Amino acid sequence: MTKPCLAVGSLGGTITMTRDADGQGVAPSLTVDDLLAVLPELADAADLQTRTLATVPGASLSFSDVFAAMDWARGVIDDGADGAVLVQGTDTLEETSYLLDLHWDREQPLVLTGAMRSPRQAGADGPANILAAATVATSPSSRGLGVLVTINDEIHAARRVRKSDSVAQDAFTSAPFGPLGRVHESKVTYANRPGRWATLRRPAPGQVPQVALLETGLGDDGALLQTVCDAGYDGVVLSAFGAGHVSAATAEVVSAAVKHGPVIFASRTGSGPVLSRTYGFPGSEEDLLARGALSAGWLDARKARILLWSLLAAGSPVDQIREVVDAHGGHPGGPDQN
C-alpha cells in the first residue's frame, strides 16, 4: 500500500517551548524535526516533508508570517503532498487559521494544530495533536473543506473555531454549532461539512492596512473610537454588547467614523449572531446599521477583523466589502448551505 505524502511545518508556539534553566519560563526552541522525533509512527504511516518556518510564540506572528506559511503549504501541495500540517502557538490560532482559510485555494487540506502544554510538562498534548492533525490532513474525507484546526481530537472549521479558555486542554470550541468532526482510532469522522466561499484576492504588494479591534464596556462614551479615527486607521471592528449594541454616545461617533472607513460591529459574547431588526434604541443594531456600520453576523469580532483586513489589503471597494462581509457573516454554513 502506498503511503500518503504529508508536509509538516512549524511556526513555533507552546508546542515547541522548553526552558534553559530551572525557574525560567518556557520559550520556543524546538524545530519541526525535534517535534517529530518523538513520533516514529508518523514516519511509518506517511512520507514526510518538513520545514521549520519560524520559532516564535503565537502572539508574535505577523500577517506576513502567515502568508509565507501559506506559500510553503501551497508549494508542497503542488509538488504532490496529500495534505499539510502547520504547527503554531495557540494564542493566535483562531485568527491565523481564518486568514489562511480566506485565501486557501487548494482541494487538499491545510490543518493547523498546537498545544496547551509544553513538551516537558506532564501530559503534554503536542504529540497527540500532531498525530491527529496528520490523520485529518491525509484523510480523503478532508478534501474540499479548506483550512481546519485539529486539537484535542476535535476537528474545527477555521471560520468558527475560537480559543475560549486560557489553559484547559479543551480550550478550543466552535460555539454554537460545534466541531465538524473527531479523530478516533486513527480514523476521521465528520458530522457536518460546511460549504466553501470563493477565496479572496491576495493583498496588494505593500498594502498593510490598520484595522482596530475595540471592545465596548460599561461607561464607554466613544472616545477611544474617536481616537482611532483621528489616528487614521483604515477600518474598525467594534466588539459590541449582546446582540450588537453600543452606548448612545458611541453610536454618535460611529456616524462620523463610517465616513473615514468601514466600521463592523460584532458581539463580544463569543457565541451567536448580532441581530438586525429587533432593537431600535440609539446604539442598537438597527440604529448602527442605519448609521452605515456593517454587521458581522455570525462572525466574532476577531474573525471580522481578519476579514476586513484582507479585503482592505486587496484594495476592495466599499460596496464589495459590504457584500462580502454580509455574505460571510450571514451564512455560517457557507454559500451552498443557505
Automatic annotation (TrEMBL):
<dbReference type="InterPro" id="IPR004550">
    <property type="entry name" value="AsnASE_II"/>
</dbReference>
<dbReference type="InterPro" id="IPR037152">
    <property type="entry name" value="L-asparaginase_N_sf"/>
</dbReference>
<keyword id="KW-0378">Hydrolase</keyword>
<dbReference type="Pfam" id="PF00710">
    <property type="entry name" value="Asparaginase"/>
</dbReference>
<dbReference type="Pfam" id="PF17763">
    <property type="entry name" value="Asparaginase_C"/>
</dbReference>
<dbReference type="InterPro" id="IPR006034">
    <property type="entry name" value="Asparaginase/glutaminase-like"/>
</dbReference>
<comment type="similarity">
    <text>Belongs to the asparaginase 1 family.</text>
</comment>
<protein>
    <submittedName>
        <fullName>Asparaginase</fullName>
    </submittedName>
</protein>
<dbReference type="InterPro" id="IPR027474">
    <property type="entry name" value="L-asparaginase_N"/>
</dbReference>
<dbReference type="InterPro" id="IPR040919">
    <property type="entry name" value="Asparaginase_C"/>
</dbReference>
<dbReference type="InterPro" id="IPR027473">
    <property type="entry name" value="L-asparaginase_C"/>
</dbReference>
<dbReference type="InterPro" id="IPR036152">
    <property type="entry name" value="Asp/glu_Ase-like_sf"/>
</dbReference>
<feature type="domain" description="L-asparaginase N-terminal">
    <location>
        <begin position="8"/>
        <end position="193"/>
    </location>
</feature>
<feature type="domain" description="Asparaginase/glutaminase C-terminal">
    <location>
        <begin position="210"/>
        <end position="324"/>
    </location>
</feature>
